[in-house]
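Handout, section B. The chain below has 301 residues.
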Amino acid sequence: MIRKLADELFQKIIEMNSKESLDSIPHSDSFLKEMESYLSIPRHELKSVIQLLKESNKILSFEIIKEDKGKDIKKVEGYVETDLVTIRRLKNFFQKVLMDEYEKQNHSRMLVHQIIKDIYSRPAYYKNTPIGQVANKAIMLEEYEMLLQKEYTQFTDSMKAKKFNDLLEQTDVLLADKRIEEAKKQSKEEKESPEYQRAVDSEQYGDFSSSSKKMSISKVLQIYGIEFFFRVNLRKYNFDILTQVIDNGDIDRKSDLKLLKDMLQKVKSNTSRDTKLLDYIENIHKLERSITRHIVSGSVH
């Protein structure tokens, strides 16, 4: 699962790096926020995967905005793939942007290294300003271009793959131990919870499992109720069944759809403890879209 998540983040970084615009380098704050929402993965797990990509030399990072606690400004990093052609192209783009922006601000056309010399001589003046951010990108991309040329053996595809696999193996071992402990803790908590007693151990749950296969949806809902129906199917990862029921119009009241939306949010927030949910991310997103779509057109009751 970590391999798949790492590949998704890496491909997204490559996609953004392929642009020739001011958005071609992902900023850690907005990028992690977007990925957290899109993948439904907690921020701390995304940061761990980013660290894995950095340590395996798949990506490089550098500071774009410096932390300033006095002004409540948090550090922001930029991410770029370790491909010489990509880095050189981005370097040329941001160096041109730097010259253009400097000319607009100072009404004087100067070469990149003259501008950088001026920025180094007045760091407080340029700190965390738009032109300062562009300068950080132009400067670090040139540094990384030289690094990849000098240490090219550390950035070959085979070397990056080896480092990634070695780190992934270590990570999997650590996570396996962590998940065993979390699973034990979760199991204990769930067995002590009223929801567990009502939705899993109760005779009603056993009746539901056997009889729901034989009855129509409307009959099942009439006997067991909407909330119980939602809870059982969410617990059993039956996201596709819930999507189908909603798309078929068997459940269309806004109040019921909003209830399911709230319950689904609680399920998503549990991905750090129930890692099996990560296998159903696409199904969860599909169900979310269906709920949102039908809330707009659903009954007002």
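Note. Residues 187 and 256 are 29 Å apart (CA to CA). Compare this with the example in section A.
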